[in-house]
Amino acid sequence: MKTLALFTWITFAISLPASVALAQPKTALQKADSVLRLMTLDEKIGQLHQLSSDFATGPITPDGDKQGQVRRGEMGSMLNLMGAARTRQLQEIAMQSRLKIPLLFGQDVIHGYRTTFPIPLAEAASWDIPAIEQSARIAAIEASAAGIHWTFAPMVDISRDPRWGRVMEGAGEDTYLGSVIAAARVKGFQGNAIGSINSVLACAKHFAAYGAAVGGRDYNSVDMSERMLWETYLPPFKAAIDAGAATFMNSFNDLNGVPATGNPLLQKDILKGKWQFKGFVVSDWGSIGEMINHGYSKDLKQAAEQSILAGNDMDMESRAYKNHLKQLLQEGKVPIARVNDAVRRILIKKFELGLFDDPFRFSDEAREKSQYDNPAHKAFARTMAAKSIVLLKNDTIAGKPLLPLHKQQTIALIGPLVQSQKDNLGFWSFDFEDDSVRIVSLYKGVQNKLGSNGKLLYAKGCNLNDTDTSGFAVAVATAMQADVVVMQVGEGRDWSGEAKSKSNIQLPAVQEASIKAIHRTGKPIVVLMSAGRPLIFNWTADNVPAVVYTWWLGIEAGNAMADVLFGDYNPSGKLPMSFPRTEGQIPIYYNYYNTGRPAQNDEHRFYVSAYTDLPNSPKFPFGYGLSYARFTYGDMQLSKTNLKGNEVLQVTVTVTNNSNTAGEEVAQLYIRDLVGSVVRPVKELKHFQKVMLQPGETKALTFVVSTNDLSFYNSQLQHTWEAGEFDIMIGGNSRDVQTKRIYWNK
Ligand code: GLC
């Protein structure tokens, strides 16, 4: 009987053209199509339906039988389910479905999984692109070991408004820096190839312009010219695609009156049209259903129609697709081709991840354990944290800079964050059972540094944000016993982040009052400002001799802060956002337009574009950060001052370390287009180099400027450059630069 069957098969196979007879689905696309052909409509819609596990990161919608939906093939993805054991368990249920299509597990691994790294805004302050990529790489290794296939990161939203709590999640205000970092994070998460056991799918979010919410109020409207959208907010998303981002997430905001989730201009015309994005788009949490609140959809059914037709593929948590797509298809309002396209895009990623070959390959408890407390990961988290720290002020006292400290000093650590551990993790971080031993507080970090013979005093002084000053007396008495006081103040763990917009971003009054109380003792004070966003702390900045911006630095925070305090790491961070003097200055950013009446300086107010009660300049400018070393720049040398067409300009500048301390400097190159068919910013970051300089060392840095650096979106949305005069500027921040003018002709 067997022989006959075999003979029959051979006869059949020979009769087919060779290309078909031996054809095996080879590409993920072919494999996806082979599955698509077998799927029922319910199973197709199931692939577009994503629910959260019981650990919610958005408004809760009670749902019945999630496991039943998985078992019937009615759910294709789940978010917020972590751990090799738990993901394996649910995957086993998915394998009971008719077609055994594996589940995709997504998670907000924004700045580390088990090894919590500095928040993304802090990492952006490092301007160290390889380090930022490595941070994402380690996050992917640990997340993939915990059964996670897909991270909802990098968040690449440009923002010029620190009232918006989610600035902590991005790379700050600059499009060029944000684009370079977006690419690095995508590469870090996805590694050399999707499908590697150490890689996860990246997800560029939130598409688009979510960081421009009016008033810095989360989820608020966004209204801007399409030119501004292309010029400032879209480039980091394009950089993410060019780096291979597998998925996109759209955003809660409406953009020029059309919610992003249902916005065909964004998702169909730009993303999948002009940019030819082949991955898939997931909505944000419930954002399809929220189009009803927006007043764009009359009901969930219309929201489902608008969203799928606009190019959104997967529905996170709104149940719009599950409840209404079938009817919309039957009514002919949504073509099956669009549903097939969405399903195909998702299946392709599941094939690329190898989940059809082995649905459990990421759910390996032994491998998960092997990544727990990986010493190399922790060591790098400490290095990344130190690189992220920005030295804002370091006055000289008795002939020498107050920082770095030395171990013979008696040090008083004072402040509401000194002993805190979890406040150093910041928003979008995970809790683990052993956090109390894993997370290094400032107190623990300094204790580690000083060892048993250190003279270390401590007082809390005050709470984060109440009116209780009863701790001041003990704090003052403690300060009086010390040679120097180090205060760690700022924000609690979730004061910045999603749904954490604030109209007042001042350092809380009680904390400033505690600083003033210690200041009255006359003891030298170092203030470490830990926060998820730029804060306003003018009195402290003006009166305290040393101020260090320490963001939220992750599990190695205390060790990193101690490394900087005692000079074992020379701070090299530069601000990725402008720091306002008051909320009244917001939005504030360095690459502003000159206006017809520019203020020439901070005092100039007479009939110019300025406030009568405040300078225009920020408290601390974009790109600003000091070092324990002293860097000086030589005169910038230009290869030419008259250029033509596609020539390139070589800009060379020497940087010298005039100190006896090795240190890193971020040399920044800005360009100004003096006259354009649309007005151009007074300066734009176009290149930077972070270099290490030994004491006394001089390095010549060369930057290559091309016409691409001169290009912008004109009124016709063409990305082009225009002949004319340009200023080339170089310096260690966006304010203190040297300038030379060139002429570039077509
Ligand atoms: C949240 C966030 C988004 C996140 C998602 C899943 O509302 O806006 O960034 O990835 O829901 O947690």
TrEMBL record:
Instruction: Please state every residue range assigned to the domain named Fibronectin type III-like.
Output: 665-734
Which Gene3D superfamilies does the annotation name? Glycoside hydrolase family 3 C-terminal domain, Glycoside hydrolase, family 3, N-terminal domain, Immunoglobulins
Query: Mind listing the GO biological process terms from this record?
Result: glucan catabolic process
Whether Hydrolase counts among this entry's keywords is: yes
What InterPro entries has UniProt attached to this entry? Answer: Cellulose_Degrad_GH3, Fn3-like, GH, Glyco_hydro_3_AS, Glyco_hydro_3_C, Glyco_hydro_3_C_sf, Glyco_hydro_3_N, Glyco_hydro_3_N_sf
Q: Which residues form the signal peptide?
A: 1-23
List keywords of the entry alphabetically.
Glycosidase, Hydrolase, Signal
Cite the EC number.
3.2.1.21
EC top class, as a word: hydrolase
MF annotations from Gene Ontology: beta-glucosidase activity
Q: List the catalytic activities from the record.
A: Hydrolysis of terminal, non-reducing beta-D-glucosyl residues with release of beta-D-glucose
Please give the family membership noted in the entry: Belongs to the glycosyl hydrolase 3 family.
State what protein this is by name.
beta-glucosidase
What lineage is on file? Bacteria, Pseudomonadati, Bacteroidota, Chitinophagia, Chitinophagales
